[in-house]
TrEMBL record:
It comes from the Bacteria. It comes from Streptomyces sp. 900116325. This is Cof-type HAD-IIB family hydrolase. NCBIfam families: Cof-subfamily (TIGR00099). The keyword Hydrolase applies. GO terms for molecular function: hydrolase activity. Its EC number is 3.1.3.-.
């Protein structure tokens, strides 16, 4: 199995999948490898990428909260975050960092309160504002992630503050970040990319030693550590570069393709 993150890893800076990398993925599939996308992104982003690049197969989305069948656009399994837990964690985090704004990711939409001012052009059709922070906790839609954002505090500082300052509420959730500016991502306790990928592999009879993984951000560390072979991208976060012994070149230089071509031979035509 080839397990790859998307942003900063498989995709270039402009969000596209290069023809070289696409050819390398197809050569690996022809050789018998299964390609699994393992991303912080929700299914709606994977759908757009799949349409543009002709991808099929399985994706582990929302940092492990969802397993998604790309071809049928179906959520196969989910591990959601209870809204009551999200509210407790947000309250504790706001006590430590009062300027932080909050949003709830559902996989289909982002519900956000007024203090959450992060806007992504690719999500303009999925954004749903609510009138106040209190209104955020009234949703009855399953939640995949609580998002905390600040325009003044970087993601590393947010992550450290959350882990150190949230107290007991932090034992109910998983904190991480994927490099978004000032963006902290919070999932149900125990939900990680590696945990979900491990369950997926167990169902397929694939051992961790048979998995090659690629990533660039702190939320990828669990996968890069769990997989038999993990590669940090040349553009990876310093903590990832320090923790992962095997490196490839950057996403802009088709680092995933470099490794796959070495393992599976020259790419075939797309």
């Amino acid at each position: 199995m080839i397990a790859s993150d998307l942003d900063g890893t498989l995709l270039r800076r402009d969000g596209t999948l290069s023809s070289r990398t696409l050819r390398a993925l197809r050569s690996a599939e022809s050789a018998g490898a299964e390609i699994v996308l393992v991303t912080a992104r929700p299914p709606r982003f994977v759908d757009r990428l799949a349409e543009a690049a002709g991808l099929t197969g399985t994706a582990v989305c929302s940092n492990g909260a969802l397993v998604y069948d790309i071809g049928t656009r179906t959520v196969v399994s989910s591990r959601v975050l209870a809204v009551t837990v999200a509210q407790r964690v947000a309250t504790a985090l706001a006590a430590v960092l009062p300027e932080v704004g909050f949003a709830l990711e559902t996989g289909n939409q982002i519900l956000y309160e007024p203090a959450y001012r992060l806007r992504l052009s690719e999500d303009i059709d999925a954004e749903l504002p609510v009138g106040s922070l209190a209104d955020l906790w009234l949703t009855d839609v399953p939640v995949t992630k609580l998002l905390a954002w600040s325009d003044r505090i970087d993601a590393d500082t947010l992550l450290a503050a959350a882990r150190q300052g949230v107290g007991l509420a932090g034992s109910e959730v998983q904190f991480t970040h994927s490099g978004g500016h000032g963006l902290l991502e919070i999932s149900a306790f125990g939900v990680t990319k590696a945990g979900t990928l491990a369950e997926l592999c167990a169902g397929r009879g694939i051992d961790a030693t048979e998995v090659i993984a690629f990533g660039d951000m702190p939320n990828d560390l669990t996968v890069l550590d769990w997989a038999g072979t993990g590669y940090a991208m040349g553009n990876a976060h310093p903590a990832v570069l320090a923790a992962v012994p095997s490196h490839t070149v950057s996403n802009e230089e088709d680092g995933v393709a470099h490794v796959l071509e070495r393992l599976f031979g020259p790419p075939t035509a797309p």
